[in-house]
Write a structure and sequence with these properties.
The structure is a single chain. With 493 residues, this protein is an alpha/beta fold. It contains 19 helices and 10 strands. The radius of gyration is 27 Å and the shape is elongated.
């Protein structure tokens, strides 16, 4: 694959100097136009020639406005990054709509680790798959993704390194690792080519650029960026194909996930108090063990308005030590959050090893409220099932315990709780006109919940549909489910 690029392209110094002024003006103007656009730009610079990659990044920062093009260099993961899924640092680095980012490195390092056996084939394949899916998600969400692999033949790299080493002005840039990387190119390049093949997809292909001639390299990359950005600014992003919404909502009569839930289950107070003390004590012991073993936990709570999520979460946190958990209340996305892919704000809050993160409302808003209320286009919420499954798979593969709860109550019980809230001063802030309006779409939400549970349940990230008409029963049921699942996960740690 890479040998095809070894054709000897060059640009004369005169042609280079002539082209640069207009190119720089074009890039700056495109960046300024991008500020008012509804998509981000990601420019990924990688290659087998580290010096060429560094020079290319410096050139882009020189020709573009660095205030609107943040550069992110992916070196070996930090301790903080090692405690999260591999793509955590990528998700945290994606730019907002109207901005661009330059990603540097990562690819050749991954190829080297695979060649040296530091990464096994199963984990390497999973990593490639997640990278591809992330690209698909960003492109489908509107991002412009431009990826460049700078290639210089080994013999010519050796000459460049030798020349640079002897130059008193540039010799400081040459490190022993550059020579070592060059010596190991033989087994690494085939793996790098595999990465290029398996992570090139619609809307995010790799562009292989011959980097032997610096001027040709600079103009080729910059012109490609300008052409792609200019074309995109002139058109509207296609949200992608969508199928009939009925495919994601039809069910036979009352045969849905929620119809089989026994809402008559309940506990009396004496039995509840006894079981609460027992289950909270067990969860406390398991949480300490999870901290020692470095097992993070992600607990996701969804349910009907007034379904009792808050009361359940308080009983869970009551069993945990203060420094071991965070509760993330999820409301409608802010203006800033809407500038990113909807999963971005949840990736930010993935817990480190040994900690709990509890989400009160979650990423499932895309296939629930955003679907039913029309805040997301059909193509957006329809592809979200696969996006969510990939997100949760990465949490599980990293070793996290993941549990998801739907707090289910009847329409009659919900109405009774709404009225009770209106009569309780410290609960009145919880009730709004929108809560009553949402009841009119109860059947539509039932369809959405049905599809959500069916399409996003797995053995490692399963849904627990909790009968919650009786709050006492629901709290104990959740605690038991967490204890059982976390215990099972810790047995494998």
């Amino acid at each position: 694959m890479l040998e095809v690029a070894e054709v000897g392209n060059t640009i004369s110094k005169a042609d280079y100097k002539k082209a640069v002024p207009d190119l720089r003006v074009g890039l700056i103007n495109a960046q300024y136009d991008l500020r008012n656009a509804d998509f981000p730009v990601i420019i990924w610079i990688a290659g087998d020639d580290r010096i060429a990659a560094n020079q290319m990044v410096n050139r882009l920062n020189e020709w573009m406005d660095a205030r609107y093009a943040a550069t992110r260099v992916f070196l070996d993961p930090t301790e903080e990054e090692n405690e999260r899924p591999q793509l955590w640092r990528l998700w945290r680095s994606i730019p907002a709509k109207g901005r661009s980012a330059i990603f540097v490195g990562g690819l050749m390092r991954a190829a080297s680790l695979r060649a040296e056996g530091e990464i096994g084939e199963p984990d390497f394949s999973k990593w490639l798959n997640h990278i591809s899916k992330m690209q698909e998600q960003l492109v489908a969400d509107g991002a412009l993704v431009l990826k460049f692999f700078l290639h210089t033949p080994a013999k010519k790299q050796r000459k460049k390194l030798k020349k640079a080493s002897n130059d008193p002005e540039s010799g400081w840039q040459i490190h022993s690792r550059d020579w070592a990387a060059l010596d190991n190119l033989g087994p690494v390049l085939p793996i790098a080519e595999r990465i290029l093949r398996e992570t090139s997809g619609p809307g995010a292909p790799w562009t292989i650029v011959e980097a032997t001639d610096d001027r040709y390299r600079d103009l080729t990359v910059a012109r490609t960026i300008l052409a792609a950005l200019s074309a995109r600014l002139e058109e509207h992003a296609n949200p992608g194909p969508a199928v009939a919404s009925s495919v994601f909502g039809e069910f036979d009569g009352k045969a849905n996930v929620l119809s089989g839930v026994d809402l008559t289950k309940k506990l009396d107070k004496p039995d509840y108090r006894k079981q609460l003390a027992k289950e909270q004590a067990k969860l406390h012991r398991l949480a300490i063990e999870a901290r020692k073993k470095g097992v993070a936990s992600v607990l996701a709570f969804e349910g009907w308005d007034a379904g009792g999520k808050g009361g359940v979460i308080r009983r869970v946190t009551g069993a945990l030590e203060a420094g071991d958990f965070r509760v993330i209340p999820v409301a409608a996305p802010t203006e800033q959050e809407r500038k990113y892919h909807y999963l971005w704000r949840f990736w930010r809050d993935i817990p480190p090893e040994g900690k709990f993160v509890i989400f009160d409302r979650t990423w499932y808003g895309r296939v629930l409220v955003e679907r039913v209320e029309g805040f997301a286009q059909p193509a957006e919420w329809q592809r979200a099932y696969d996006e969510i499954n990939d997100f949760e798979a990465q949490l599980v593969e990293r070793g996290n315990y993941v549990a998801k709860f739907w707090m289910h109550i009847s329409p009659e019980e919900q109405l009774a709780r709404f009225e009770a809230r209106e009569d309780t001063p410290y609960k009145q802030h919880k009730i709004t006109e929108e809560d009553y309006r949402n009841r009119e779409k109860w059947d539509e939400y039932v369809q959405a919940v049905d599809q959500m549970v069916l399409r996003t349940t797995s053995d490692q990230a399963r849904w627990h549909v909790i009968p919650a008409n009786n709050k006492l029963y629901a709290r104990i049921a959740v605690l038991k489910a967490i204890n059982k699942g976390l215990s099972r996960r810790l047995d494998k740690a």
